[in-house]
Amino acid sequence: MPRHNDIYYMVTINEAVNAVKNNISPLFKEETKPLERCGGYYLSKDIVSPVNMPPFRQSAMDGYALFLHDNLSYTLIDEVKAGDHHRPALKPGEAIRIFTGAPVPETANAVMMQEKVVVDGSKITIENYVPEGHNIRPMGEQVKTGELALKKGTKLTPAAIGYLTSLGITEAQVYKKPTIALITTGNELVEAGEPLPYGKIYESNSKMLLNALYNLKFYDVTIHKIADDYIQTKNKLETVISNNDLVIATGGISVGDYDFVGKALKELQVKEVFYKVKQKPGKPLFFGKKEDTAIFALPGNPAAALSCFYAYVYIALQKMMNNDTIELPRIKARSMSEFEKRGDRPQFLKAIYHSDTVEILEGQNSSMLQTFALSNALVFVPEDVSNININDELEVILLPV
Length: 401
Prior knowledge:
By secondary structure, the protein is an alpha+beta fold.
């Protein structure tokens, strides 16, 4: 997207979103990981089952395994519980006590649940006739040896990991997630836990964005903190751009005397895709590329930075992972609040969504996180809307929980 000659020109939100979509490609890098560390990853290869599951005929419940005959009475000859490996041989009219998950002997052809059996010593009487195969899980009912267990592109949820583990699988080949560098800039920033001198503030953007990434299951993240120094800024950006798939900087992107991020990116020949978006909060947002590395420079104000993360960086992350759904879900909800929008920029408002209603919260300043801390959604207000009234239908962006 070529930059407009007018220094006051801002791209629209739609232009910015489409620019991110069009300039980010799936990574398609692969790695093999232990299965227990694959949560949230996507399979890069089909997985074929090495075993039948279940690996034997299995009782679906506690009860009695029967060799069916033309009578409701049976002779009890043995017992098989889960984990047993002996195989009693039944004759017609014989039964064994059996428990859920236990192997059903080859000569048994039905299982009657214990609640429908009367026991009298070694004799049992079942309540009614049952068909062959009753309450028996066939060998390979879930998947057979050599069959496709999970196909390439499947997201490894806890259930998927449990399923693959039940097949004896210990590792999986997955699409590698992006390496990410977080950079915070500013002489005014102090680490939480340290004394707070006059004129300083505690730095929160790095922890905030780190946990936003962790919440989305992106863990290969490094944090870099730099002062308002041009050489230091340029050198750090050069290093992290060379070593990461995605760079996210906060602060230093505006046009102040000590805002060095934009100047450094230009000297490093980062291709500017867009700079400044017609939106509130988050107007001074930069997105660019250098070779295969994507670079976002977010506003320094925490609420603005997090809004831009969800509106744009989230899309880039999903595109890198080749996900089908790359934007946060949007729904319609009825307003429980009144709100007056000033200016002509579209706005993202912190809000609480519940059922089919949404409450716009007080305290929408781009520097304030207290309201964001209570939010589970953003209300999108288009530029042509100035006033929101109670019961108005609003567009709501649901945030990750």
